Amino acid sequence: MSVTTFDLMRHGEPEGGRKFRGALDDPLSATGWAQMRAAVADVRPWDLVLSSPLRRCAEFAAELAERHELPLTVVPELREIGFGAWEGLRVREVEARYGEALTRFWRDAESYTPPGAEPIGEFDRRVATAWAQMQAIAAGRHALVVCHGGVIRLLLRQVLGLPLARIWRVDVPYAALSRVEVHPEPDGSALPVLVFHAGRVA
């Protein structure tokens, strides 16, 4: 079997700027659209597009798939982590209302879950399900995956075997691309390899 390649792309800036957005379905801002279009330019190395169902990902994915006549699959499990009571709040607002809880969350996501939020372990299992689905859908091909910062961090965690508690230490800028190749092994297993992170596609 051939190598399967995934380009993981975070969405651009949504309307409303930086905040704990999670499950909120805000669309991209004009700046966000420009960031994503600039990130891919006119290159077309992909055979298919996979996307989160949330608008800040799915609308760009649909535009790109249509422009390049590529098949598009929406993967529900690629949606961002739900932040519960923090949804819609900016960092300074969370700090004001919840004190040191935010620091605990950044330092060790396993030890603290925001009120009403999706526990990081459940999020990790959901992303693992998405990762298995994506490998089955894209086997032997080159896929663009349009998703979220939290999702990309967990995909990279699973590829590299990083500690779940430390995932927020990985920076994932708006419209950044990371490439993972999945190499088939003689014993029937697969070896995922991080080729680059937060770079540009060529």
From TrEMBL:
Coiled coil: none annotated. It comes from the Bacteria. One of its GO terms (cellular component) is cytoplasm. SUPFAM superfamilies: Phosphoglycerate mutase-like. Substrate binds at residue 56. It holds the Pfam family His_Phos_1. GO terms for molecular function: phosphatase activity. The active site is at residues 11, 80. This is Alpha-ribazole phosphatase/probable phosphoglycerate mutase. It comes from Plasticicumulans lactativorans.
